[in-house]
Design goal:
Rossmann fold, 5-stranded parallel beta sheet, binds iron/sulfur cluster, alpha/beta, binds FE3-S4 cluster, Cytochrome-c3 Hydrogenase, Chain A, domain 2
Length: 396
């Protein structure tokens, strides 16, 4: 049983997650259902955690392990700060389909303070924030959304007389784990685009003495953020990160690697305007500026809205929103000059790809069987004689 230390000579036992849920009125049956949900998300991480190529082929059932973890481990408090951002990452969470892992992790298990979703405001909210950091000192997950403006001696974003830089540093000091969710907190995001008037910086540039997990995206995929928290609860470890601080499982391959329009790309069929027959037929959007070939994220497999769709599926090229400096990087809606003859997937890439595919299966189970007209079209298109082929430009 978890023990938070001694008080008056007596050890103080912390409430476990199961006990907490029981107190919240969750039945044993519901608890087992929740554990199954978390176990499904754990499948996302299973490949790199289990670290064996043979296991990549099957999705291990981790429900028993999750039940054990939630029955014995204390609740993991989460404190969520919104700094210089549009609130889109929170909006993406709020828009997730229900019931989901997001509901479970954030509504029922973890969130202790969330600036945007919190009912309290003003001094009440400030008091709650700093009380939470004191109560859970050294134990909480700090999630930061939005970039941190450093210009004007902190004048661009100050709360209750404290600059955003100070707020983030102070909250980070007592955190056990720090997650930067969204491209703004991970890399500076749009606020950092030229001319960067507020001198926006990422969490990693402000907090340099602790590991920070970056979950970039505009917005970040909610299941990746909550999955990272769930993984920490169950396995007690952070995921393996790439050189940009992103979990390799979700950022190990490009959008292009799993894109549903890829068969059109490989068949040399490219839309040339947003309303031509190629675009309407689901053809590749490379010549409309798609950055899928150089963008690392799990959009094409996890998607949004319970696995419903993602930008390319709905007809918009990827603008590389999960890459650093994407706003300044060569202009939007212009064909990119990138080598597309990619080598075969590496072992890491394979693990990431399998992890993402398992994630897609989890999402698919949640939304039931929904027919994917675009995918069916994409598979049959290279042989479709009746579809007109636009003239190719820009690439050999
Ligand atoms: Fe998909 Fe873009 Fe790659 Fe075309 S270039 S296959 S639209 S990711
Ligand atoms: Fe962003 Fe591209 Fe995904 S624009 S949401 S990384 S498809």
């Amino acid at each position: 049983m978890p023990d938070s230390g001694a008080r008056n000579g007596n050890p103080v036992r912390e409430e476990t997650i199961y006990e907490y849920l029981q107190r919240e009125g969750v039945s044993r049956r519901q608890f087992i259902k929740y554990c199954g949900m978390v176990a499904g998300a754990m499948g996302l991480w299973a490949a790199p955690v289990l670290n064996g190529s043979a296991r990549l082929l099957g999705k291990p059932d981790l429900t028993e392990e999750v039940i054990r973890a939630l029955e014995t481990k204390p609740r993991l408090p989460v404190i969520w700060l919104d700094i210089q951002g549009c609130g889109g990452c929170t909006e993406a969470f709020a828009g997730s389909q229900s019931p989901t892992l997001v509901d479970l992790m954030l509504d029922r298990i973890s969130i202790d303070f969330h600036q945007m979703l919190f009912a309290a405001a003003g001094s009440q909210a400030e008091t709650a924030l700093w009380e939470a950091t004191r109560t859970y000192a050294g134990k909480y997950v700090l999630v930061v959304e939005g970039s941190i403006p450093t210009g004007g001696e902190g004048a661009y974003c100050a709360v209750a007389g404290r600059s955003a830089v100070d707020v983030v540093r102070e909250a980070a000091a007592g955190a056990d784990v720090i997650i930067a969710t969204g491209s703004c907190s991970a890399f500076g995001g749009i606020a950092r685009a030229t001319p960067d008037p507020t001198e926006a910086r990422s969490v990693r540039e402000i907090v340099t003495d602790k590991p920070v997990v970056n979950i970039p995206g505009c917005p970040a995929i909610p299941e990746v953020t909550t999955g990272t928290i769930a993984r920490y609860i169950v396995f007690g470890t952070l995921p393996e990160l790439d050189d940009l601080g992103r979990p390799k499982t979700f950022y190990g391959t490009t959008i292009h690697d799993s894109c549903l329009r890829r068969p059109f790309h490989d068949a040399g069929k490219f839309a040339r305007s947003f309303d031509d027959e190629g675009a309407r037929g689901g053809w590749c959007l490379y010549e409309l500026g798609c950055r899928g070939p150089t963008t690392y994220n799990a959009c094409a497999t996890l998607k949004w809205g319970g696995g419903l769709s993602f930008p390319i599926q709905s007809g918009h090229p990827c603008i590389g929103c999960s890459q650093p400096d994407f706003w300044d990087d060569g202009g939007l809606y212009q064909a990119q000059s990138v080598p597309l003859d990619r080598p075969a997937l590496t072992t890491v890439g394979m693990a990431a790809g399998v992890g993402a595919l398992v994630g897609a299966a989890v999402a698919a189970a949640g939304r039931g069987r929904r027919k994917r007209v675009h995918e069916a079209r994409a598979e049959s298109a290279p042989e479709a004689e009746s579809t007109p082929e636009p003239e190719r430009t820009g690439r050999g």
